[in-house]
């Protein structure tokens, strides 16, 4: 498989750096083709502004969405963004690796998403009508491909449990899993998470790396998270409400958008 690994930590000698090296070594041993986007090493520009869109007129009010649409359609985005888009189209699997900072991804990685996931590329795709509302949430540019998060947290695992003070880790990662990866079509694998990262001892590191190697070996076979498909009948169009009778299990919030009984999306990308 072709695998793109996007790394978002400023220190290569960190725990994240060590985990990255373990993952890349295992992927190489399995014979996969791997490309790495090390955002800090590359000096990635994280902020979307007018400079991202050479065709944007200086005489008009700057509208990022419209500028993104125009730039992508004309092939006139900046060279760094075009290079990352090419990597994404090449990859069968996307891995995003980052420390959980203030309950989300670091700004540099969010900026990578903001700039690379352009209108017409990752969103604004497909027919919008009374039958469909775009190719998204299980459909779209990345349908048939897989994605996975590699995450470290400073807090202990119980802090991120269903009754933990920080909230369940699955809820904290839902906006990334569902809104950034599932939205443009990726089948999203369960995350690899290492807790208590600042106090991880040698024994804990050995356990984490053994699990990580196993996860890398299972990229093609691990069942993805069972998110509901937008255009598959679970939601009304165009108001995008879950249909009556679905999700009536007592669950609420993000859990409503999971369908554990549904078959996994097909891996159709070649």
TrEMBL record:
Residues 251-270 are annotated as: Disordered. Coiled coil: none annotated. Gene3D superfamilies: 3.40.50.360. GO terms for cellular component: cytosol. SUPFAM superfamilies: Flavoproteins. Residues 1-214 form the Flavodoxin-like fold domain. Keywords: Oxidoreductase. GO terms for molecular function: NAD(P)H dehydrogenase (quinone) activity. The keyword Transmembrane helix does not apply. The keyword tRNA processing does not apply. Pfam families: Flavodoxin_2 (PF02525). Belongs to the NAD(P)H dehydrogenase (quinone) family. PANTHER family: NAD P H OXIDOREDUCTASE-RELATED, NAD(P)H DEHYDROGENASE [QUINONE] 1 ISOFORM 1. This is NAD(P)H-dependent oxidoreductase. It comes from Rhodovastum atsumiense.
